[in-house]
Amino acid sequence: MTAVPVSMTDVRELVDGALRAAVGRLDPRTYRVAAYHLGWADKEGHPRKAPAGKALRPALALLSARAAVAPPESALPGAVAVELTHAFSLLHDDIMDGDRMRRHRPAAWTVFGEASAILAGDALLALAGEVLLEAPGQGSARAARALSAATRRLIAGQALDMDFETHRRIGLDECLTMASDKTAALLACSCSIGAVLDGAPEPLCDALEEFGADLGIAFQLADDLLGIWGDPESTGKPALSDLRSRKMSLPVVAALNTDAPEAARLAELYARPGLSEDDLAEAAALVEAAGGRAWAEMEAESRIQRAAEHLVTARLPEPVRADFLHIADFVTGRDH
Predict the structure, then answer these.
(1) Which of 2-6, 62-66, 248-252 has the lowest mean pLDDT?
(2) 20 near 127, Cβ under 8 Å?
(3) What is the pLDDT of residue 307?
């Protein structure tokens, strides 16, 4: 199992209290759904020891404050806000995608109903804006605008991803645009929001955001690879889950856009209303044979290299740059 960077382990301890305090503002019914979704409680509302999450976005937010030579604690409102926004997106995504499992447990909507899960997601998103606007300093409004813009892009990406379900011929550039909005926009915001809250110069904030944009594409590529070839014990999702739902993920689209004979067979399988276990295994082999897996792995590495170049532009202190690169390595090497 891929080890989580130490700095990200520390983040959980720093952010957890502030995150719980923010979610604690919710009414009891909505809180119960949110607490379950975040892993803090069982379906009856009894506290439980939550498994350690990746804490990727909060870690990046706190690190971006250090990039601006500010104490990590100054970015706590940003770290909480991006995590709340991420939680909102997952609550809604599970419903739209029909995913019944989340982090090795039944998804919140299967436990509390779709309406309650939607309302909990809406509440978490509203909380994210509140937390930022209450942050001390002149950067709070700027940070709130940045998160709002990233959320609009996230929603646009999700809408495009849903639109892909009715199209069986999608260009690779179009799929990358979807990933850039759905996944990379919030990661890019996370990478700069601590610096934004500190009132850092725009060139620094821009370089950190560009780092996050490339990191976000690498993250989605890794996620898509796990969606086909990941170990269910680590991912918490069924084997071949993305193929089971005939998702137009990046490795699949890359494979379909080749001239390889396997691409035609893959397209034929994806056009079927349902796939057997044998069909799923064949589809995974076809994606790999058509070059989709190799392309995704190489593109992820390329994106990480590009992300590292943005850090050079930002002229970060060496320890901060090393921590950003540590997280980047974790993104492409993770198993969940």
Answers:
(1) 2-6
(2) no
(3) 98
Task: Residue 194: name the closest of 86, 83, 293, 64 by CA.
Answer: 64
User: What's the one-letter identity of residue 83?
Assistant: E
pLDDT at 237: 77
Contact status, residue 163 vs residue 177, Cβ threshold 8 Å = no
Contact residues for 319 (Cβ-Cβ < 8 A; gap 6+): none
Q: How far apart are CA 14 and CA 173, in angstroms?
A: 39
Q: For residues 255 and 297, is the Cβ–Cβ distance under 8 A? A: no
**What residues contact residue 82 under an 8 Å CB cut-off, 6+ apart?**
57, 58, 60, 61, 128, 147, 186, 189, 190, 193
Taking the complete model, does pTM exceed 0.90, yes or no? Answer: yes
Domain ranges of the chain: 6-333
Q: Cα–chain-centroid distance for residue 39?
A: 17
Distance CA 188, CA 66 (A): 16
- In the CATH hierarchy, which fold is given to the domain comprising 6-333? Farnesyl Diphosphate Synthase (1.10.600)
User: What pLDDT score does 126 carry?
Assistant: 98
Q: What pLDDT band is residue 52 in, cutting at 50, 70 and 90?
A: low
Give the residue among 26, 182, 43 at the shortest CA–CA distance from 107.
43
Residue 50 in this model has a pLDDT that exceeds 90: no
- Provide the 3-class DSSP secondary structure of residue 102: strand
Q: What percent of the chain shows pLDDT beyond 70?
A: 96
Task: Give the closest residue to 6 by CA, choosing from 329, 332, 335.
Answer: 329
Q: Which residue has 């799923």 as its token pair?
A: 280
Long-range contact set of residues 260-266: C-beta below 8 Å, sequence gap at least 24 = 260/289, 260/290, 260/291, 262/286, 262/289, 262/290, 263/290, 266/290
The residue to which tokens 């996230």 are assigned = 154
Under 8 Å CB-to-CB from 10, ≥6 apart: which residues? none
**pLDDT tens digit sequence for 281-293:** 999 999 999 999 9
The Cα 41–Cα 61 span in angstroms is: 26
Residue 103 confidence (pLDDT)? 86
Q: For 274-293, give one letter per residue: b (16+ CB within 10 A) or e.
A: ebeeebbebbbebbbbbbbb
- The C-alpha angle 290, 159, 265, rounded to 5 degrees, equals 20
